[in-house]
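Mods, move this if it's the wrong board.
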Amino acid sequence: MNRTFDKNNIKIAAFDVDGTIFHEGRISDAVKDAIKKLHESGIITVISTGRMRYYMVKSVMDLGVFRYGVFGNGTVVWDFEEEKTIALQAFEPKMAEDILRYVDTFTDAYSADFENENGLTPKLLELLREEIKLEIPKDGSAPKEIHTIYENLLEHVIQKSEPVVKMRANFLSIEQRIHAMDKIRDAFEVELSSTSGKDIGITPLGANKGTGLEALCAHLGLATSNIIAFGDGGNDVEMLKRAGFAVVLGNGQDSAKAVADYIAKPVWEDGVALAISELFGV
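Not the wrong board. Structure tokens:
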């Protein structure tokens, strides 16, 4: 987008997780060190992810530098120090039920995230294990499963009868995803995004990483122009567009690269670390 980088204007650095700072089950030492240095320089470091807080990557959180988190593609803004929600957008139970019932006509691979719990169908877990690597423990033991599986997730959502902040559906091809996305958009007023190309993230209308960061900025008395955002996926686009400066990894989707001000090296080449070093001199 050709915005000019002004280091003195940056007050917040927002980081996507999967495909940006986390790759193949790990966050590299170089990326850890770079984020720590940015934090130590006085910039507020923030997680901005499609994940929910309760299944965040432990090694990322163990850095101890993230005061705030934008979770569920912007539906939940969380203050780690105060241990409280700053902003929340969610579907009422009946609308969540209606959407999931409709999604079920297209695929049996879907999920529902509540503010404090998530649930997946067995088929979605199968597809996620192919797409997203679980965190590899330092002791070399097998990665620990972090999701709750329901054979009948729709029935669980109905019985739980609580607001749902985010839903996800996965497909076997991009063509299937595009068809389903068009149908869902026609049937419901919702926000839709895609991280991998074969998935659909479904959040309340107006809820995305960009609006999540807007809510955080309002809380802090800052502007979104004070943000540098790092991302790689389609669900990062609104965050990248609203930020004062947007960094997209070399492995990023075309939709993300189209709104980037700076294309970094891929995640497997420590693109975030190299970008921080070049832009901030730390």
